[in-house]
Design goal:
The protein has one domain (2-74): Nucleic acid-binding proteins (OB fold (Dihydrolipoamide Acetyltransferase, E2P)). Helix content is 0%, strand content 53%. The chain contains no helices and 7 strands. It has strands at residues 2-4, 12-23, 26-33, 36-43, 53-57, 65-66, 73-74. The strands form 2 sheets. It has a 5-stranded antiparallel β-sheet with strand order 1-5-2-3-4, with no helix packed on it. Strand 3 and strand 4 form a beta hairpin. The chain starts with a strand and ends with a strand.
Length: 76
């Protein structure tokens, strides 16, 4: 996933930032989206502090998927 402050080209969905946490050089954003709640880690320089909405872009070539029951990785 990649975070954007404006709607990017390609597959993406809007998210509302519920909570942001700074951890050194990274920012952890807890977001509410149409897919449910997501927690995303991004470099602090990519997203300004106090950002209330973001766009989450999906890069399915780099995504990892896990089975909810077994918690094992699923190869698509």
């Amino acid at each position: 996933m990649r975070l954007h402050t404006s709607e990017p080209e390609g597959q993406a969905f809007a998210g509302r930032v519920l909570l942001s946490e700074m951890t050194g050089s990274e920012l952890i954003l807890h977001c509410e989206t149409e897919l449910g709640r997501l927690t995303v880690t991004t470099p602090r320089r990519d997203i300004a502090g106090g950002q209330t909405s973001v766009w989450v872009g999906l890069d399915t070539d780099r995504a990892l998927f896990f089975d909810n029951g077994s918690e094992r990785r699923v190869n698509l």
